[in-house]
Design a protein that fits this description.
Length: about 140
């Protein structure tokens, strides 16, 4: 689940204002801790965590200029929907939610840290690997 919050953090930190920002490193730290808090709580007790996306948005919206807040909210909601879907799937299939990450390795040979695409074992960057698997089975 930690990887989930990293993916969301990366996504949302790319949307932080770059020019004229006061202490951008502080904004990034606040954003990271808010993402981690939310995802950790989601992993612990998602059935009793009402509207996690709205909660996270409330925590981080002040870091963004008004004209991008709607896009930020939309991004958060999509991450949360994915996270919830995976949690439900993992819990149903394995009785735990420990395997929520891409099955591929990065160029340095380490496990990819990104969150898989819904319905796939791979993240968007590694999704082509799934097509290769499918193709070799068909041949
Ligand atoms: Zn990947």
């Amino acid at each position: 689940m930690y990887r989930f919050s990293r993916a969301m953090y990366r996504d949302l930190s790319a949307m932080l204002p770059r020019s004229g920002a006061v202490r951008p490193e502080l904004a990034e730290r606040l954003l990271l801790s808010a993402c981690e808090r939310t995802v950790e709580r989601l992993a612990r007790d998602h059935r009793r965590f009402a509207r996690p996306g709205a909660r996270l948005f409330r925590d981080v919206r002040s870091l963004y200029p008004v004209h991008v807040q709607l896009a930020v909210y939309d991004r958060i909601e999509r991450h949360m929907a994915d996270a919830l879907e995976y949690l439900d799937q993992e819990i149903a299939e394995r009785g735990s939610a420990d395997l929520l990450r891409c099955q591929a390795s990065n160029r340095k040979g380490k496990a990819c840290q990104r969150v898989p695409v819904t319905g796939s074992k791979f993240c968007p960057s590694h999704r082509h690997l799934e097509r290769v698997e499918t193709a070799s089975f068909a041949a």
